[in-house]
Structures are given as structure tokens and as C-alpha cells.
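> example.struct
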């Protein structure tokens, strides 16, 4: 009976990660059938990079992910800082509820709402571009900034305000205190928030499907449309690259966090 929890843990981990291992192994399968192993080959990686549509969709996803994460990070920083440091100001409940909405709102509802918003804006304002990478970027920044705000708020909640108050007592202006004391302390949270926003944007399918245009297909949309006609071995190769890239991002985030912790310990 003592080994039962370990068995359950092992079964749970196998259920979660064994399919990923199978996908990675079969990305090197020489057969066109994704479930029949006929020998080792890396030809599907070459076929993947030769597929112009997939590469264009991957480029669109990377552009949107970088831009939306870079936009969501300062907005999430401002929102998280306000919730953590400004006390019970007027509108705090509304702000907190607005930030919590993207975390619990169904993606279909968010997608329809944003679609109606962009259509109305396009009809009202002549300078508004049509649906495309711009609208996808705005939509992704809109829901990922909530995750950045949560991370920043949690970081500030665990960080005493003594140093900031001491700097203010010594005559430092609020912006100088924020720039030279608060912001460096928030650097790990901001990096983690940017990486999380990047991954969430790269992974999104539902919202992007509603707010995209005919010439702005993202990678998840391309993959979803292709597997409806049957899974190609190129998809296994693509999935393997995404898994490796995600693991690299997680490793980089963990390394940055440990490095910042060592710097903080050295200063104290």
C-alpha cells in the first residue's frame, strides 16, 4: 500500500507525457502513416521547412506572440502595480474584476465579443485596418495582460515596501523609486510574465480564429485545419519542434529565476 501513491503518480505522469514522447519518436518515422513505424528518417523535418504555408503561418504566430507579449507586459505591470501598491482606490474592484474576466471567460465568448468590437470599430473609424495580424495582436495582448498582472501582483505582495518607503523618506521622487528600486526587483516577474504571454499567444486557436483575416492564418489555425483531413507526419515534426522550444523557454525562465535569486542573496 505504501507504493500505491508512487504508482498513481507514475501513471499520471505517463498519461500526461507519454503521448508527447510518442509524437517525438514518430516524427523520425520514415513511413507516411503516422502510426506505422518503418524505419528512422528525418525527411519530414525537411518537408516541414519546405512547406511554405506552414512556414508563413509559423512566422505570423511568432510575430503576433512577440508583439502581443511586449504589449501585454507593460500593461500588466501597470495593472498589477496599481492593485498591489495603491490601496483601496476608487475603481479597484472594477479593475480587479476586469483583469479576472479573461482568466475565467470562455474563449468562444471572448472571441465573439472581440469580433463584434473589431467589426464595429472598422465600420466607425476609417483609419482602422481590417482583421489581420493587428487585430490578433490586440486580442492576444488583451487577455494575456491579465496573466502578467497576476504575476506582478503576486511578486509585489511578497516584496516588503520598506526599501521603497526608505527611498521616499530620503527624498527620492515616486518615479525614481519605481525606476531604480521597484522595477529591478520585478525583473524576474516581468520576464516570466512575458514568456507566459508569449506561449499563450503562440498556443491560441479559438480567439485567433474569430479575429483573424483571410491572409493572417496562424500556426494553430493551420495545424487544426490540416489534421481535419488526416494527420501528416509533418505535424509530428512540428509538434516536436514546439515541445523542444517550450522546454527551452521553461529552462530559460528557471535559470533566470535562479540567477536573480542568487543576486538578491549576494546583495543581502
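> example.seq
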Amino acid at each position: 500500500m505504501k507504493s500505491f501513491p508512487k504508482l498513481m503518480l507514475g501513471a499520471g505522469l505517463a498519461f500526461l507525457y507519454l503521448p508527447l514522447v510518442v509524437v517525438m519518436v514518430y516524427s523520425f518515422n520514415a513511413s507516411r502513416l503516422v502510426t506505422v513505424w518503418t524505419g528512422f528518417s528525418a525527411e519530414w523535418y525537411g518537408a516541414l521547412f519546405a512547406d511554405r504555408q506552414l512556414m508563413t503561418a509559423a512566422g505570423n504566430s511568432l510575430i503576433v506572440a512577440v508583439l502581443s507579449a511586449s504589449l501585454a507586459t507593460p500593461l500588466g505591470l501597470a495593472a498589477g502595480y496599481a492593485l498591489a501598491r495603491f490601496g483601496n482606490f476608487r475603481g479597484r474592484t472594477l479593475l480587479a474584476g476586469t483583469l479576472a474576466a479573461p482568466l475565467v471567460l470562455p474563449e468562444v465568448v471572448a472571441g465573439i465579443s472581440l469580433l463584434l468590437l473589431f467589426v464595429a470599430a472598422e465600420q466607425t473609424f476609417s483609419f482602422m485596418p481590417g482583421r489581420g495580424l493587428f487585430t490578433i495582436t490586440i486580442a492576444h495582448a488583451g487577455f494575456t495582460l491579465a496573466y502578467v498582472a497576476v504575476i506582478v501582483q503576486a511578486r509585489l505582495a511578497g516584496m516588503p515596501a520598506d526599501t521603497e518607503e526608505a527611498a521616499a523618506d530620503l527624498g527620492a521622487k515616486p518615479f525614481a523609486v519605481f525606476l531604480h528600486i521597484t522595477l529591478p526587483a520585478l525583473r524576474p516577474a516581468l520576464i516570466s510574465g512575458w514568456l507566459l504571454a508569449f506561449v499563450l499567444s503562440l498556443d491560441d486557436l479559438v480567439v485567433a480564429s474569430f479575429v483573424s483575416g483571410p491572409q493572417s492564418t496562424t500556426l494553430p489555425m493551420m495545424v487544426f485545419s490540416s489534421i481535419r483531413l488526416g494527420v501528416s507526419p509533418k505535424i509530428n515534426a512540428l509538434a516536436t519542434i514546439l515541445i523542444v522550444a517550450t522546454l527551452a523557454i521553461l529552462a530559460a525562465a528557471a535559470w533566470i529565476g535562479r540567477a536573480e535569486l542568487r543576486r538578491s542573496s549576494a546583495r543581502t
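> remarks
The CA atoms of residues 191 and 253 lie 7 Å apart.
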